[in-house]
Amino acid sequence: MRLLMVFMAFNLIIIVHELGHFIVAKLSGIKVEEFSLFVGPKIFSFRKGETMYSLRVFPILAYVKMEGEDEDSDSERAFINKPVWVRASVIAAGPLSNLILAFLLICIVYSFTGYNTRTVKTVHEGSSAAETGIMEGDTVVAYNGKRIYDPMEVIQFLYISKGKPTQITIKREGEKELITKDIVPKVYREYLFGFYADSTPGRSNVVTDLAMGGPAEKAGMQVGDKIVALNGTEVTAIEEIKAFLKENEEAEVAVTVERQGSKQVLNITPRLTENYELGMEFLRVEKGSLLGIMGSAARFTYSNIRMVPYSLYWLVTGQVSITEMTGPVGIVSTMNNAAQRSETFMEALLQILLWTGLISAAIGATNLVPFPALDGSKLLILAIEAISRKKIPVEKEAIITSIGFFILIGFSIFVMANDIMRFIIK
User: Fold this and answer.
1) What global pTM score does this model have?
2) How far apart are the C-alpha atoms of 355 and 344, rounded to whole Å?
3) Which residue in 115, 79, 63 sits closest to 303, CA to CA?
4) Domain spanning 191-271 has what CATH number?
5) Res 103: pLDDT
């Protein structure tokens, strides 16, 4: 049931995108020839007015077919014959629909779960934050010269900068001016299996998530496993596991886990991992006002939008490896893991909605990138047409789109193969 919910959520993102194109095209008087749910041979279809509505056999994706979208047409209602601003509105409606969906879903999730703020709740003694002079109640405004909209960005920028000394900007109550301070993150190396533990007291040896491509995942560890022994020595808490690995270093470990009432032994070789720490925690609002929820959801959505250009930059500059990227297989797997580790149906639903919102924001922002075959490239072509007052021939645009399409398909196959290899190489 939960896997079905994940699958439906993934399709929802694509369907909403195409609905955006469809609705604005209809409102603009463009003739829409077909709106299709899914792809492949038709299962059934019906016509309402001038538009054919169809359901196809492969339950993934959706598409809208407009007259004059990919070919010349003499009709006044053809897409190609509409003013530039109308065509731009139709194209932009898809990505914008994804961004609106993301915002609405995050609002729903935050209304049930609460949300994190940029306000510092705790500063650990002897930490980088304490040495820098950060105090409880301070609000983090920028890190490493980059504006902070969501507290998770602090962690992202910390790791992408590999913990190098930098600056942090805070807003302090009672101070009119922002305060910028030098901060030196603590860098420490430790041997890890590559899993995340339950924070509930007495359950810190229960696996709640796995680092993609990490030693634990490759050895076959699963979300929900309870680590009960290392090389035959009983362990009951994450602190005992960390202490064992500190002494063991890189030697292979026989890890005994409890899974669905039975015990299994997994042979795992820990990996030396470099971690970075600032030593502060952020304040969480459990029950916020409507305006607080909407404001936090808007910042979270914007944070995920701007991570798209940041990620592309990090990819080009080599700060992030292409092998770390994930596609539909990895996304569905991650969403399913989040749903499966939830104890109740409601928790699973909220996890799925959260991930759906995050991915919808990323897809909406990615589609606005001016790369051939994406909506962003079509908007760029229309901008050139508006400035030059000269239409780019449909055939030339089709060639550009085809080249981009094949590049994207090749890239998608690589990313998908990378996802699949994570599952089969254990």
Assistant:
1) 0.82
2) 17
3) 115
4) 2.30.42.10
5) 97
